[in-house]
Design brief:
The complex is a heterodimer of chains A (about 120) and B (about 350). With about 120 residues, chain A is an alpha+beta fold. Chain A has helices at about 5-15, 80-100, 105-110; strands spanning about 30, 45-50, 60-65, 70-75. Chain A is built from three helices and four strands. Chain B has helices spanning about 25-55, 65-90, 95-130, 135-140, 140-165, 180-220, 225-255, 265-295, 300-310, 315-320, 325-340, and strands spanning about 20, 170, 175. Classes of the chains: A alpha+beta (about 120), B mainly alpha (about 350). At the A-B interface, strand 1 and strand 4 of A face strand 1, strand 3, helix 6 and helix 8 of B.
């Protein structure tokens, strides 16, 4: 599954959270400028966003969002980051299984929105 | 069931968070508004007056005259675009993608055109002063050459500005560079500032250093009691150029050299703030050019005074009351005559040529 798909599903997952993170305005870009080397415990990770150097930010990064709405910058090249993403993927898969058990299969699709590299 | 626990994690400095890039904006925007307003007002008045003088009162007679007209045009182009740039940056960018492209392109064009033409002016002064004997023949053809050179510079500025125009877009009401390929992004993000540093600063700087150095050497050899003042004018022109453009280009070099590596949030913020402040200093050069180059000339100021009289203005007293500035501006003509006499030439100098 590509990172784009993971990102999209991650946005679905994030939109189900009770509290959305406080949004930066468009005049206030916030970018990762360095990476976290200390692995985050999986239990505190609620979701992630992909930062791309194709736009304003200088470097590529994965931004993990914690249950306390903190954003943590990480590099996809680190092993613990890939493991955390795999962990999120399994959580998303379980969520999809639960959703498919209901008869309203269109529910998750209706909240898919376009990807943005701005911090939400 | 997933047995994840809601552990109370204490975040330490080991965890890197996104860095707010525009944290200084609120502090800076007030100062910037006043400075930009000053730049717009002085730049507009100065450059319009230069163009008016050439259009109605004085035909361009020398290479320097042709260069000065083009510098005024380039600065005027940017000064007209600057209020729109400021407005869109202070609030959300509301004018869409094409305004984004054109306004960023206007700044880029101004940097290249203005600085390269100033280098040509120093070259013209070098030819007039240092190569006075040899340049006698070619001066009759000089005006045609200068027009070709100006066209070449405008074309070069346009080509060098193309990447800026192509890759700037409006997105989420911000005017930013957007790429579709990673290799393209890396290449262009390095190429745009590198070209600006090389052709917008280093090449003009080297030309100026060479030409003005020889000009000053020649002036110092001249047996003229006013030679030191002429040297001071040359030095003023050169150092204002350096003071306006060097800080921004150094900041740009630092930023570009660390474009794809990690650095601390504080370092990132200081770098971006330095870029923003030094860019403002670079903008200043647009309204200083008319003062440094055009209004120093004696004949030019007499035409300028004629404009004021035609406008029924009482600025005449102010113009002629400054005796020291009168002496300073006389130096250009007398210095040229002195050098010409020593070389046995009775060349009639332009009021803008040393």
């Amino acid at each position: 599954m590509s990172l784009v798909s993971i990102t999209l599903i991650s946005i679905v997952f994030l939109s189900l959270l009770p509290h959305t993170p406080k949004a930066y305005g468009p005049l206030n870009y916030a970018c990762c400028v360095k990476y976290t080397r200390t692995p985050l415990p999986f239990g505190v990770i609620a979701g992630f966003i992909e930062q791309s150097s194709l736009e304003v930010c200088r470097i590529d990064a994965i931004i993990f969002i914690t249950q306390k709405n903190k954003k943590i910058c990480a590099s996809i090249e680190d092993q613990w980051v890939r493991a955390a993403l795999a962990h999120l993927r399994s959580k998303i898969a379980k969520l999809e299984n639960k959703a498919s058990l209901r008869l309203t299969t269109a529910g998750p699709n209706s909240v898919i929105q376009t990807n943005t590299t701005n911090s939400p | 069931m997933d047995n994840e626990t809601n552990m109370d994690l204490e975040y330490s400095d080991d965890y890197a968070e996104p860095c707010p890039l525009m944290w200084y904006r609120d502090h800076e925007v007030t100062v910037q508004t006043y400075v930009y307003s000053l730049i717009c007002a002085l730049g507009l008045v100065g450059n319009v007056l230069v163009l008016l003088t050439y259009a109605f009162y004085k035909k361009a007679k020398s290479m320097t005259d042709v260069y000065l007209v083009n510098v005024a045009l380039a600065d005027l182009l940017f000064v007209v675009a600057l209020p729109l740039i400021i407005h869109n940056e202070r609030s959300r960018w509301s004018m869409g993608t094409w305004a984004c492209k054109l306004l960023r392109g206007a700044y880029s064009m101004n940097v290249y055109t203005s600085t390269l033409l100033l280098a040509c002016i120093s070259g013209d002064r070098y030819i007039a002063i240092v190569q006075a004997r040899r340049s006698l023949r070619t001066r009759s053809q000089a005006k045609a050459y200068s027009r070709i050179i100006c066209l070449a510079i405008w074309f070069l500025a346009f080509v060098l500005s193309l990447p800026t125009v192509i890759y700037h877009q409006e997105k989420n009401q911000e005017c930013i560079t957007i790429f579709s390929e990673m290799e393209t992004a890396r290449l262009v993000k390095i190429l745009i500032p590198s070209m600006q540093m090389v052709f917008g600063f280093l090449v003009p700087l080297m030309v100026m250093v060479f030409c003005y150095s020889w000009t000053m050497v020649t002036l110092l050899k001249a047996q003229n009691f006013q030679k030191h003042k002429a040297v001071r004018v040359v030095l003023a022109v050169f150092f204002v150029f350096v003071l306006c453009h060097l800080p921004y280009n150094v900041a740009l070099l630092v930023y570009t050299s660390k474009l794809f590596v990690e650095r601390s949030c504080g370092e990132e913020q200081v770098t971006l703030m330095t870029l923003s402040v030094s860019r403002t200093a670079a903008y200043l050069h647009c309204c200083l050019n008319p003062i440094l180059y055009a209004f120093i000339g004696v004949k030019f100021r007499s035409h300028f005074c004629q404009i004021l009289r035609d406008l029924r203005c009482l600025g005449k007293r102010y113009i002629y009351s400054g005796r020291s500035s009168q002496q300073t501006s006389d130096l250009y003509v007398s210095a040229t005559k002195t050098v010409a006499e020593q070389n046995g030439i009775n060349d009639n100098p332009s009021s803008f040529t040393l």
